[in-house]
């Protein structure tokens, strides 16, 4: 997906904001340019993270040297690719300019004072070894930003250097794609392949009907890059070979060989549908639109859903009590607005797959950056298997991203996704929520904050491993919850999380509660019964985070041998007393446990 989106951008099929996170990309280029860290903006130095939730690429700062001597002013608009990102997209262009203006204001008001104070402190240390080391010429950065703003409306001369070849594997067969970003035409003379296993080299035959040499025109300003595709025979297996392409400048006899890069077919659209109210009402007879309330709602009743319900931004989506939505296996709900589920004890709301669809179930729900809180009451969520749409996928049956959600008196039953409920970078409340008979993890909170009050988690991870409550990089309170028959961990606390647990019962889990990787677990007035590995465990799985800690008060551990395991360097305190630590092989423990209780 990431490669396909990037390919679509480079070839002019997708705008920059369809491919990149507009705000992050605009600010990244502006900040890098303001600090003259343009080495990191060179295309081969750029690194991207594909955010699997938003479906966009995010820039990763890499190899960006900041000069301490005065250097010439430079602009990202002088580079072909970054100029295309900025000039070709109004939203990124706006964010780029606003960021430069913000930086300039800060430099003129407050930035130099604290930076120079920090520099003075560091230079005192460095001068003990490098007495002639000079400080950074900070005034050059004010001049640089002023230069960038002055150059903003001037169109740069493009300067590109490299021809690229891609070994594209697609449904319609394999082909080599050669892209020419140069201003002059090139000629593709030959293809050769090297067998990876034996290093045997030979000329590569092309599909009958193809011919070499092939001419590729040069780039012209305002047009898309020129390319040619050379189809390979169906019998060719790209994974077994390295493919080289012989090219030469037109009129120049010197042939240069470039290695093709394994790639995927170009995307012409982002796979996540955007949604439009008129289309939604037209396609679904049971969907109502109230323009006065700015609300989309479902008529009460039992409805078969044979397409995606896509709710656009700026709306309110409401599902009234007494409604049952039965989704075909390939569909679910994608909403950029809050979802209200207004069930009650007599008239709940049911979201499920079609009766008789067996293990297929349905895809689930994705709420992304909703402008207000989603409140769910008396909802039954059944048989989700996770979202998979055109190469884009989410691990959760219900996925909440950068939103607020409150779920009351609801049930998640028979879900087959990696996480029945996955909440990412969001605030949440779960009140009396039941998770039962789920294949993998029940509830997974990543980089979020919230509370779990009451509720029951039962028969979790029966498909080969799963945690009842899995917390990563989050701050969570858990009170009065029952966890029964958990194949892995009742409560898993990791990646610098802080979790407070009160009056919780864990029965028959692999590990009752675990704290790992820089996390702190405080547990009180709780009971842990019949844990297969240990009642409480503190250890390190990811060394970059450091040790885990557990502080337990009034915790009864029965039928678990041993009651606690504390890896050397970690810490468990039981009723004010330190637990002795031991050397353990965490990797070995995990591999052994997979065959017994499925610990992950």
Short characterization:
By secondary structure, this protein is an alpha/beta fold. The chain starts with a helix and ends in a 6-residue tail after the last helix.
Description:
The chain has 600 residues and is α/β, with parallel strands linked by helices. It folds into 3 domains: 150 residues, no CATH class; 100 residues, Immunoglobulin-like (Sandwich), CATH 2.60.40; 233 residues, Pectate Lyase C-like, CATH 2.160.20. The chain is 16% helix and 40% strand. The C terminus is likely disordered.
Strand content: 35-45%
What is the CATH C level class of the largest domain, in words? Mainly Beta
Helical content class: 10-25%
- How would you sum up the global shape? globular
Per CATH, the architecture of the largest domain is 3 Solenoid
- Domain count, please report it: 3
CATH topology of the largest domain: Pectate Lyase C-like
Distance between the termini: 27 Å
Largest sheet: 20 strands, parallel
List low-pLDDT spans. 155-161, 592-600
Taking all Cα atoms into account, the compactness measure Rg is 29 Å
- Overall pLDDT confidence: 88
Class derived from helix and strand content: alpha/beta
Number of strands: 47
Enumerate how many helices there are, as a single number. Answer: 9
Describe the SSE topology.
Blueprint: H1 2-10, H2 16-19, H3 22-34, E1 47-51, E2 56-60, H4 80-87, H5 90-109, H6 111-126, H7 139-151, E3 164-170, E4 173-180, E5 186-195, E6 201-203, E7 214-216, E8 226-231, E9 241-249, E10 256-259, E11 261-263, H8 277-283, E12 287-290, E13 295-298, E14 301-305, E15 309-311, E16 316-320, E17 323-327, E18 332-335, E19 339-342, E20 349-353, E21 364-368, E22 374-377, E23 379-382, E24 387-389, E25 392-394, E26 396-401, E27 404-408, E28 411-413, E29 419-424, E30 427-431, E31 434-438, E32 441-446, E33 449-453, E34 456-460, E35 469-472, E36 475-479, E37 482-494, E38 498-502, E39 505-516, E40 520-524, E41 527-529, E42 534-539, E43 549-553, E44 556-558, E45 564-566, E46 571-574, E47 577-578, H9 586-594
Parallel strand pairs: 3-11, 13-16, 14-17, 15-18, 16-19, 17-20, 18-21, 19-22, 20-23, 21-26, 22-27, 23-28, 26-29, 27-30, 28-31, 29-32, 30-33, 31-34, 32-35, 33-36, 34-37, 35-37, 36-38, 37-39, 38-40, 39-41, 39-42, 40-43, 41-44, 42-45, 43-46
Antiparallel strand pairs: 1-2, 3-4, 4-8, 5-6, 5-7, 5-9, 9-10, 12-13, 24-25, 46-47
Helix pairs in contact: 3-5, 5-7
